[in-house]
């Protein structure tokens, strides 16, 4: 029952803030904030429950929805989804606090869209029925489209359409794959069901299984994004409102990582393992390609986009090497990378407010001028490049360590990519904060209270995950062991 | 008491028609005529529930399947006459023509014999010509209506000629005009003439349902006619023709694999091009015209599946899909006739002047696009499952692509609705009947999308 | 007495049918278009009559009467349309209609 509440609270909150807009803007802001706080409290409570049980599934909820197709409203939460849910709730809270200042037009509609994105993302994480998964996966796209097309900057319409086409292709592939899986399971067992638990044991032929696994992989690779399918991300990031892109990095990418982990490894362990080397090669290409392009970018936001493409290569490698160490590393890396890039995106928004540009060439010599911004930026960039003491380091290290036993060559090549990461992030710091001051129209506005708070919360979380990563490991260890055991069986 | 309760709906409609004609010749009061029409339609709608048994005459067959479509046709006729009451002020003849056309459509749905089939088809179309060319004393609109009327009339009677000729050839070969007696296989000893006959019948199906090579009149027809009448064309004629052809094809010879391939290609082309052609349109009704073409393309895939192996699931798919399609189309045209403007730019920023209408229109468009939470999604799921079940892979992929293109242009309309522009207030009567009808339709679509189980099990009875 | 082979009947009616179709496609005058429609309807009516005779059933002739009735109704609507056309455009040429495009 708590899961059902958890699922519906953001949707209801969105409707409330839409309807409060007519009365008073403040009410709609407050209702959005209040919704997120309730969600945070609930998810912390779920974490508490998780630590006190030995079951893989912390809480379950199951009731029939559409009897005709064997579709159940089947919600369950385990360690992996719990850590993802916690992360998205925290990020959602931060983005709502940020948007208090930024968003001035159509406020109720903005919170409506934001909360619906959050709600459908939480739905994706909680759904244990593939139909439900698909349902939320599809819903997620539309509020995002509206946020880009209404609150974006120049050329927003074209960008929104580009985003839309890419994600829609991913959605259609996912839909066809899931339906094919269900129908082929129906042919074998004679039972029409969409439930994850019963499809895990489905007897699928090898050829069909490989095709289905590839379908899932492509569909998630578009959302991650991975090298040949990535071109939507830089455009969308560059033309987005800063809080929209915060959501993008933070949340949309994580759903794809979660999908890879849950569906690809969970449903097709054997086929995934035989596909793993190719997936890792794609990951390596992605790492190098993203890093090289990030080096040559002039727009901070595009740079962030390419850096996240590069980092997602590591996540892909971690997920597909599929042992306990690397899976934990992947989760850790997703969490801390999301946090650090969110922080950098916020900072680039703050810089835009002061310098009126995202272009690196017009920045420079900002250190010691803008109050606390350069300090925060430096520490967040160091976190992105994976300095020991931050969660990113732990994540990368575990991914590479876990992968080394199985694919040493791939590990060596991909770890060389870390050097490139260091180069482009230090280059960014150097060009933006050191050197001569190029921008005359510098507005020396100091950070206000809430911005300092947001950035320090992000930093605090990154350092927590860096110095005491056991918290996150404890959350997800049980379900990760379960998945890893299943794949180990096929080595 | 009544011996054959099964023909009550249609006979009530006949009685209404006669009363209408007499009343019009004595007393030309719009409101009175309207009330008589509504009462007649409601009575025949209610009389459907009296029917318990199936009826099997040589000319007509009344079973659950045809009753369901009678119900749908009556509902859409009811909605269309209400729309046209608010849209036009002095239009007594419209109701008469609507009732006439409805009788034809119902006859078409019930028919299992060539004569009833033909009479129903012609009764429906001839009354429709009158509706399409209904002049409003407005030069520009009148010319449009005339043009679309002539196009529709020539093409539709040509299609009936094709149908007649094909049926004549089949009649020569089998010596029977009833569909139910065509229990035959197309084997080696069938003559060339029979194949020509079947091809001609399929061509006329293409014209009547506006499948792609024969589609060119549809967008013009949609643009030229008044919104209430367009709603009528988009729902009643499409439903009845599709259902009647289903019945015909169910018992027609197994189409050879060559013809089946041709049908597959046609349906793929219809789905893709119907959606692609809609991309660049700037008139809402034209977009809906192309979207109806694409929707019938989706339904055509069901016919291809049916040629392979008939089962109850196919009928269920058709029922659900036509139900959702009808309700959604009615809702959209209701809004268009309420706002009374069809250019897309007029709808810019509708949300900021009339939020409730914009939200209702959004729900309808989402349902047409097949987005979760709405009824259209359930229909799309059925179509997908059907194509998967019969392993029609090319069709499956083209449905997927077509669906995404479709979502794109529906979203273009939706993003127009929410654009932030300053505009003058729209002036129309929100307390009109149509507003509440459209509101109830959108509620129904949402409920269907969220809790489909009850409605699905209800519809399974009828298939 | 030898009968005419039945295929000849079909060929004749098919020729009539195609005359109708081509006339409909080529000619621009609305009156001629209606005439072509009539030709098409009557060619199929011809097949009905012949095959009714072939099977010894009255059905073919019933269909023929139905077709005649319906054709009359259709043409009467068509003539009403024609009058409107003449009123609005002062011409019978349907190419003058070019409002709806896209």
UniProtKB/TrEMBL annotation, chain A:
The keyword Aminoacyl-tRNA synthetase does not apply. Residues 127-414 form the NADH:quinone oxidoreductase/Mrp antiporter transmembrane domain. Pfam families: Proton_antipo_M (PF00361). Keywords: Membrane, Transmembrane, Transmembrane helix. InterPro entries: NADH_Q_OxRdtase_chainM/4 (IPR010227), NADH_UbQ_OxRdtase (IPR003918), ND/Mrp_TM (IPR001750). The chain crosses the membrane at residues 6-25, 32-51, 71-97, 109-128, 134-151, 163-188, 208-233, 275-296, 303-324, 330-352, 364-386, 406-424, 445-468. It is found in: Endomembrane system; Membrane. One of its GO terms (biological process) is ATP synthesis coupled electron transport. GO terms for cellular component: endomembrane system; membrane. Belongs to the complex I subunit 4 family. This is NADH-quinone oxidoreductase subunit M. It comes from Candidatus Portiera aleyrodidarum MED (Bemisia tabaci).
UniProtKB/TrEMBL annotation, chain B:
Keywords: Cell membrane, Membrane, NAD, Quinone, Translocase, Transmembrane, Transmembrane helix, Transport, Ubiquinone. Residues 113-398 form the NADH:quinone oxidoreductase/Mrp antiporter transmembrane domain. It catalyses: a quinone + NADH + 5 H(+)(in) = a quinol + NAD(+) + 4 H(+)(out). The chain crosses the membrane at residues 7-26, 32-55, 67-88, 94-110, 117-135, 155-174, 195-217, 229-250, 262-281, 287-306, 318-339, 359-385, 392-413, 433-451. It is a multi-pass membrane protein. Its EC number is 7.1.1.-. One of its GO terms (biological process) is ATP synthesis coupled electron transport. It is found in: Cell membrane; Endomembrane system; Membrane. GO terms for molecular function: NADH dehydrogenase (quinone) (non-electrogenic) activity; NADH dehydrogenase (ubiquinone) activity; quinone binding. GO terms for cellular component: endomembrane system; plasma membrane. InterPro entries: NADH-Q_OxRdtase_suN/2, ND/Mrp_TM. Its main location: membrane. NDH-1 shuttles electrons from NADH, via FMN and iron-sulfur (Fe-S) centers, to quinones in the respiratory chain. The immediate electron acceptor for the enzyme in this species is believed to be ubiquinone. Couples the redox reaction to proton translocation (for every two electrons transferred, four hydrogen ions are translocated across the cytoplasmic membrane), and thus conserves the redox energy in a proton gradient. PANTHER family: NADH DEHYDROGENASE. NDH-1 is composed of 14 different subunits. Subunits NuoA, H, J, K, L, M, N constitute the membrane sector of the complex. Belongs to the complex I subunit 2 family. This is NADH-quinone oxidoreductase subunit N.
TrEMBL record, chain C:
The chain crosses the membrane at residues 6-25, 30-50, 62-83. Its main location: membrane. Keywords: Cell membrane, Membrane, NAD, Quinone, Translocase, Transmembrane, Transmembrane helix, Transport, Ubiquinone. It is a multi-pass membrane protein. One of its GO terms (cellular component) is plasma membrane. It is found in: Cell membrane; Membrane. It comes from the Bacteria. Its EC number is 7.1.1.-. The keyword Transcription regulation does not apply. One of its GO terms (biological process) is ATP synthesis coupled electron transport. It catalyses: a quinone + NADH + 5 H(+)(in) = a quinol + NAD(+) + 4 H(+)(out). Belongs to the complex I subunit 4L family. NDH-1 is composed of 14 different subunits. Subunits NuoA, H, J, K, L, M, N constitute the membrane sector of the complex. This is NADH-quinone oxidoreductase subunit K. The gene is nuoK.
């Amino acid at each position: 029952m708590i899961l059902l509440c958890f699922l519906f609270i953001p949707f209801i909150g969105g409707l409330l803030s839409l309807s409060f807009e007519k009365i008073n803007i403040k009410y709609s802001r407050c209702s959005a904030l209040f919704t997120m706080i309730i969600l945070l409290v609930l998810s912390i409570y779920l974490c508490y429950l998780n630590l006190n049980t030995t079951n893989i599934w912390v809480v379950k909820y199951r009731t029939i929805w559409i009897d005709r197709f064997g579709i159940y409203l089947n919600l369950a939460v385990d360690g992996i989804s719990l850590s993802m849910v916690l992360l998205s709730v925290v990020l959602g809270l931060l983005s709502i606090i940020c948007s208090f200042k930024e968003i001035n037009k159509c406020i109720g509609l903005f919170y409506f869209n934001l909360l619906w994105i959050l709600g459908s993302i939480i739905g994706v994480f909680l759904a244990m029925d593939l139909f439900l998964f698909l349902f939320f996966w599809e819903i997620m796209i539309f509020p995002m489209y509206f946020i880009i097309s209404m609150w974006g900057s120049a050329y927003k319409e074209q960008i929104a359409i580009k985003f839309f086409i890419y994600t829609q292709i991913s959605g259609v592939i996912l839909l066809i794959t899931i339906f094919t899986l269900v129908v082929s399971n129906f042919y074998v067992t004679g039972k029409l069901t969409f439930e994850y638990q019963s499809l895990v044991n489905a007897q699928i032929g090898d050829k069909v299984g490989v095709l289905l696994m590839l379908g899932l992989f492509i569909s998630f690779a578009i959302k991650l994004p991975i090298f040949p399918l990535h071109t939507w991300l830089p455009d969308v990031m560059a033309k987005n409102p800063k809080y929209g892109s915060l959501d993008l990095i933070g949340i949309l990418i994580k759903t794809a990582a979660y999908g890879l982990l849950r569906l690809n490894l969970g449903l097709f362990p054997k086929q995934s393992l035989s596909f793993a080397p190719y997936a890792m090669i794609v990951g390596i290409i992605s790492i190098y390609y993203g890093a090289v392009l990030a080096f040559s970018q002039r727009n901070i936001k595009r740079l962030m986009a390419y850096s996240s493409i590069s980092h997602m290569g590591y996540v892909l490698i971690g997920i597909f090497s599929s042992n306990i160490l690397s899976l934990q590393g992947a989760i850790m890396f997703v969490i801390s990378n999301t946090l650090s890039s969110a922080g950098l995106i916020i900072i680039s928004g703050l810089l835009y407010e002061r310098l009126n540009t995202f272009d690196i060439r017009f920045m420079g010599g900002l250190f010691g001028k803008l109050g606390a911004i350069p300090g925060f930026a430096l520490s967040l960039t160091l976190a992105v490049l994976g300095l020991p003491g931050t969660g990113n380091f732990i994540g990368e290290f575990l991914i590479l360590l876990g992968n080394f036993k199985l694919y040493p060559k791939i590990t060596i090549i991909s770890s060389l990519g870390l050097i490139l990461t260091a180069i482009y992030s230090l280059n960014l710091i150097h060009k933006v904060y050191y050197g001569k001051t190029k921008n005359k129209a510098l507005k020396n506005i100091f950070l206000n209270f809430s911005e300092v708070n947001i950035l320090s919360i992000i930093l605090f979380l990154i350092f927590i995950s860096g110095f005491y990563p056991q918290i996150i490991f404890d959350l997800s260890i049980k379900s990760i062991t379960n998945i890893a055991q299943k794949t180990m069986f096929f080595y | 008491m009544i011996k054959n309760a099964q023909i009550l709906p249609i006979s009530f409609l006949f009685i209404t028609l006669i009363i209408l004609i007499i009343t019009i010749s004595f007393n030309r009061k719009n409101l009175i005529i309207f009330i008589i029409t509504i009462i007649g339609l409601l009575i025949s709608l209610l009389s459907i529930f009296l029917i318990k048994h199936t009826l099997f005459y040589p000319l007509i067959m009344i079973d659950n399947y045809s009753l369901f479509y009678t119900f749908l046709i009556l509902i859409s006729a009811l909605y269309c006459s209400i729309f046209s009451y608010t849209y036009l002020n002095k239009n007594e003849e419209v109701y008469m023509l609507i009732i006439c056309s409805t009788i034809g459509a119902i006859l078409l749905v019930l028919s299992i014999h060539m004569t009833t089939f033909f009479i129903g088809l012609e009764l429906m179309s001839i009354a429709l010509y009158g509706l399409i060319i209904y002049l409003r004393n407005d030069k520009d609109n009148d010319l449009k209506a005339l043009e679309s009327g002539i196009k529709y009339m020539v093409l539709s009677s040509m299609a009936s000629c094709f149908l007649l000729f094909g049926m004549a050839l089949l009649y020569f070969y089998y010596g029977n005009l009833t569909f139910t007696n065509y229990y035959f296989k197309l084997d080696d000893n069938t003559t060339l003439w029979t194949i020509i006959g079947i091809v001609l019948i399929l061509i006329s199906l293409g014209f009547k349902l506006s499948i792609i090579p024969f589609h060119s009149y549809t967008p013009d027809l949609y643009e030229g006619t008044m919104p209430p009448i367009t709603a009528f064309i988009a729902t009643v004629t499409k439903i009845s023709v599709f259902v009647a052809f289903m019945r015909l094809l169910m018992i027609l010879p197994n189409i050879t694999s060559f013809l089946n391939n041709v049908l597959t290609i046609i349906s793929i082309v219809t789905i893709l091009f119907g959606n692609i052609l809609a991309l660049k349109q700037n008139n809402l009704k034209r977009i809906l015209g192309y979207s109806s073409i694409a929707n019938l393309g989706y339904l055509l895939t069901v016919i291809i599946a049916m040629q392979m192996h008939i089962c109850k699931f196919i009928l269920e798919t058709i029922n659900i899909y036509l139900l959702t399609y009808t309700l959604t189309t009615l809702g959209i045209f209701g809004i268009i006739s309420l706002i009374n403007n069809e250019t897309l730019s007029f709808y810019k920023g509708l949300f900021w002047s009339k939020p409730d209408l914009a939200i209702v229109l959004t729900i309808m468009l989402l349902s047409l696009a097949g987005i979760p939470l709405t009824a259209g999604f359930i229909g799309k799921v059925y179509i997908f499952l059907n194509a998967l079940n019969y392993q029609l892979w090319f069709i499956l992929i083209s449905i997927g692509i077509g669906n995404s293109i479709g979502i794109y242009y529906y979203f273009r309309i939706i993003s127009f609705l929410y654009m932030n522009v300053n505009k003058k207030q729209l002036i129309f009567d929100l307390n009109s009947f149509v507003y509440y009808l459209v509101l109830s339709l959108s509620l129904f679509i949402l409920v269907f999308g969220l809790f489909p189980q009850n409605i699905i099990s209800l519809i399974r009875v009828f298939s | 007495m030898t009968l005419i082979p039945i295929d000849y009947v079909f060929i004749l009616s098919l020729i009539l049918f195609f005359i109708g179709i081509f006339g409909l496609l080529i000619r621009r005058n609305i009156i001629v278009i209606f005439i072509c429609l009539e030709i098409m309807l009557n060619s199929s009516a011809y097949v009905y009559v012949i095959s009714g005779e072939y099977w010894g059933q009255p059905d073919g002739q019933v269909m023929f009467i139905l077709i005649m009735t319906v054709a009359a109704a259709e043409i009467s609507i068509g003539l009403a349309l024609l009058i409107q056309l003449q009123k609005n455009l002062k011409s019978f040429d349907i190419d003058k209609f070019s409002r709806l495009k896209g």
